[in-house]
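To make this tangible, we now present a fold written out as C-alpha cells:
***
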Amino acid sequence: MNSVEIYAKQRSNWGLLIGSLIFLFCSIYLFLNINQVNSPATAKLISIVMFVPSFILVVFAINKLRKKQLIVLIDKKGIVFHPSQKLNYIVWGNIAEIEELKLPRQRIINIKVIDSEKYINAENQKFLQTRMKFWNQMYGAVVSFDANTLDKNHFEIMYIFDEFMDDYKTSLQTKTN
C-alpha cells in the first residue's frame, strides 16, 4: 500500500484572498476618487492605511494557496502529524488506539500512543509540543486533529487508518509464522 498524504482545506485561504482583494480595491477606488470627498487628506490617509495591510494579506493568501499544507502523512512505517524537516514517525507498533471523538459539527481524531512523553519531547516545534502536551492531558492522545479542516472526511481518514493498521497486524502475523 502506498503512502497517503492528507492536506488542509484551502477554504479559509480563499476567504482571506477574497476579503483582502475587496479591501485592496476599495482603497484603490478611494485613492483614485480622493477629490470627490469632503476631506481629501483624511481619505488619502485612510486609503493608504487600507492599501498596505490588504496588499500584504493578498500576497500572503496567494502564497498559502500556491502551496498545500501537508497535515498528516500515513505510510507502512507509521503516521506523521504536521510533517516537517525532522520527521517524527509514530510507528504502528507504538499506537495504542485511534479513536474518533464526535462533537457537534466536528469529528476529532485522537491518536493514543505508548510512551507519549517520547513523542512529545521529540517534537521540535514548540507550539506543536505544547499542543501535544495539552491533548495528552485532556484525552490521553498525543496527536489530535479536526477532520473537518482536512481535504478528506473523517470516514475516509478512519478507513485509511484501519487499512494501514490491518496491514501492519497481518505483517506481524506473517513474521511470527
User: Anything to note?
Assistant: The CA atoms of residues 17 and 59 lie 8 Å apart. The chain is about 55% helix and 20% strand. The radius of gyration is 23 Å.
